[in-house]
Amino acid sequence: MTQDYRLDNTAPGAVPEGEFEFTVEDFRAIANTLHKETGIYMAESKSTLVYSRLAKRLRKLGIDSFKQYRKFLASDAGAEERIFMMSALTTNLTKFYRESHHFDLLRRQVLEPLTAEIRAGASLRLWSAACSTGEEAYSIALTVLQVFPNAADLDIKILATDIDPAVVRKAAEGVYSEGSVEPIPSAMLERWFDVDGPRGERVYRVSAIMRSLIAFKELNLIGAWPMKGKFDAIYCRNCVIYFNDETQGKLWPRFGAALKPQGRLYIGHSERVSDPGFESDGLTAYRLKAQRAAA
Q: pTM for the full model?
């Protein structure tokens, strides 16, 4: 999910009152389902958020109580609703070049040192592991295109994944408002986007060339990873902070195993990698320690 979950606060142990009866038991069951499905931990202080966002789902489904909604979620027929629930309870906050230093680091730490090899035919593999609506993945692609304008003719691929199918579909469409593309340098915007509409109402569509560099896929980070190759860089920013320590502890070594020996892992500004197999290599940038890289 660069996804950043913004969750509202309520006093611990309290539950909101409203149109539907909502008990602490209801909250805990829903929070447990969310954690089981996504790895996201939600404290009881988030009960107001859960109520306000899921009450809309109850109305849409014609369900009279959260107790009935819980039963529906647990049933075989509720498999699709569990996806809607997850989308409702997470807010995907992202933008082009968010935490811009990571794209400068990608260029200096990964792309420029590999320039000769990649131009000679070596592969470059990059992963946006919580891509949300695509701005992060396209920012990675724009950084690549600064160094390799002919990237589409080279062995360069970007994988962009998210657990939420709705945001993956939006990301794959690659259509953005005039306001959202403001962080993109004008020369890059003109070269790599197609423009429709008058000023003030324009939409910007990712060009076919840039789009060809990226494969958008649904992926649950706490589930199976079907990828067999390793990556030169992985972006997983503002996501794992919402996992508990146990889940994070399982995730870091998996990222380590998915990196090439000289690869980099970029995480959010409020996150830290606790795995001893990594060492810091810049502001919220990490690389494998020598012994793990050599393994």
A: 0.82
Residue 182 belongs to a domain with what CATH number? 3.40.50.150
Q: Does the residue 192 lie in any domain? A: yes
What is the DSSP secondary-structure string of the chain? -----------TT----SSS---HHHHHHHHHHHHHHH-B---GGGHHHHHHHHHHHHHHHT---HHHHHHHHHSGGGHHHHHHHHHHH------TTSSTHHHHHIIIIIIGGGHHHHHTT--EEEEETT-TTTHHHHHHHHHHHHH-TTGGGTTEEEEEEES-HHHHHHHHHTEEETTTTTTS-HHHHHHHEEEESSTTS-EEEE-HHHHTTEEEEE--TTS-----S-EEEEEE-SSGGGB-HHHHHHHHHHHHHHEEEEEEEEE-TT-----TTEEE-STTEEEE-HHHHH-
* pLDDT at residue 93 tops 80: no
Q: Is the residue at 214 inside a domain?
A: yes
In a domain? residue 18: no
Same domain, 186 and 215: yes
> Which of 26, 162, 232, 275 is flagged as catalytic?
162
What is the domain count for the chain? Answer: 2
Do 116 and 57 fall within a single domain?
no
Structural domain containing residue 137:
101-294
Give catalytic status of residue 162 as yes or no: yes
Q: Choose, from 53, 70, 82, 202, the residue flagged as catalytic.
A: 53
Q: What is the pLDDT of residues 209-255, one digit of tens each?
A: 999 999 999 999 999 999 999 999 999 998 888 888 999 999 999 99
Please confirm, yes or no, whether 53 is among the known catalytic residues. yes
Residues 210 and 269 in one domain: yes
Instruction: Specify whether 57 is located in the same domain as 128.
Output: no
Q: So what's the pLDDT on residue 13? A: 47
